[in-house]
Amino acid sequence: MASIHINDIPSKVEHYVSRHRLRDAFKLLRHYSSHLGDWRITDEIDRMEESYSMMLRYATQGAVDPERDEMYSSIVRKIYAMLDRISRQISKPKSSNMYFSTVRYEEMQAGDTVGSLMKNYKTASNEASPYNMINASSAQMSERMMAKEDLEKRIFNKVWTLYPVSSDDDAALREAFESPVLPDYFKDMLI
Hints:
The chain folds into two domains: 6-91; 98-190, no CATH class. The protein is built from ten helices and no strands. The chain has helices at residues 9-18, 22-33, 39-60, 68-91, 98-108, 114-127, 130-133, 138-161, 167-178, 184-190. The chain is elongated and about 80 Å long.
């Protein structure tokens, strides 16, 4: 393992998977995850490999398993998902590109969820509506529009860097798309 550079590991794992050499892929994936020192990731890799071992054991015993192909495909999908997850975690602390800078910023905003930001946006959008701006001073109007625009940027960044998407996040996004009060340009931005 020492002879493989960390940047070459993802392509090597993909090579092993494409050649149906999942044992080698698991070994390399475990080595790749060791750079993170996260026992939860190692535990997930162990569970995937255990599922693969059980599938092979049943196959060598001659057991008929009509779901074998689906199980194999599921394991391969999990390997690719884990590879992406590890690559993302390894790249995050040292990358200077805008995406990872935004990821780091969003992670510091621990209390903000897609749902809470959407709730704040609906309030800000309502306050910036023409009806509610009628009696506002120009300073209040400017402040309300800035608050709305700031929330649009925050929501965009949150959605852009969201990984993985939770069921609560998914529900908040679906609700936003179905909302008749949110502007179309905002929905376009979310897409």
